[in-house]
Amino acid sequence: MDKLAMYLIALAAACPAISIVSAELHTTDGQFNDIVFINDDLIFRFPRTPLVAESYTNQTMLLTYLQGKLPLPIPCPLYVATRAVPWQERFMGYRRIPGKPLYRETLAAIHDPTALRGMAMQLAAFLHTLHHLALVDLPITLSVSDGIGEWEALYSGFQATLFPHMRPAARQWVTDHFERYLQQAAQFTYQPVLRHGDFGGSNILYDPQTNCITGVIDFESLGLGDPATDVAALSSYGEEFFALCLTTYPEMQLMLERAHFYRSTFALQEAYSKPKLLVDFLGT
């Protein structure tokens, strides 16, 4: 039985009220999930590992809690199968948020100053609201991420996995870069907030007709941590656009040193998660 057939059987058993007219499986859209589009209106995520399956319970609770609390649409779990079925048949389903991914090159092709200011305001307001939610009200207890221990572990992973494929000059740059940053204890004294954790262009949707942000998706990395991780992703749109964002969320300016470090590791993290796709950065 192929994956799509297995997923459709699981959906029919758990959600018999859904009349499935069309179904399309995407196995490359997400790193940890298979995505099934139903009737061009519903999106169902199925886990690729038992660990991801276990995470669906917390994700569902957090996404449900966040409904109506953020200034942009986010996924709203309508259909959930988590505990009572084998992990391969667990899923989370929600209505599809319209829009196209706002990649950096996509934003660069937009030259309307009014539209750019509006989009910057929308994204900055989203992060400001998310980062300032009261943590005591969260429906579950979350551990804190983005601490020095995680970065030390990631650095060790780079050394073991990536260094053998890198030229000496590149290895030395990474070594100097990480060891200099990890020795700055002050960089790890931030106040943890609820942060998205993967605020990149593939997870930010916009309407090409109106040049307005239509929603934010993929909250798999949502958790307590450093708000600068989201600032790093937002700043990757370029200095001019980020300056527009600062007018709505000026406190981001204070996070830029951490954000710049995080952003400098994006290519390494991409290569680390997909060793066969070692990017050109590693050989420079």
Q: Give the topology string: H per helix, E per strand.
A: HEEEHEEEHHHHEEEEHHHH
Strand content: 5-15%
Q: Alpha-carbon distance between the termini?
A: 45 Å
The whole-number mean of residue pLDDT values reads 93
Percent helix, as a range, is: 40-55%
The geometry reads as globular
Largest sheet: 5 strands, antiparallel
Summarize the structure.
By secondary structure, the protein is α+β, with helices and mostly antiparallel strands. It has helices at residues 3-14, 50-66, 104-108, 113-131, 148-161, 168-182, 228-235, 239-246, 256-264, 266-273, and strands spanning 23-26, 33-38, 42-47, 79-81, 91-95, 100-101, 193-195, 204-207, 212-216, 223-225.
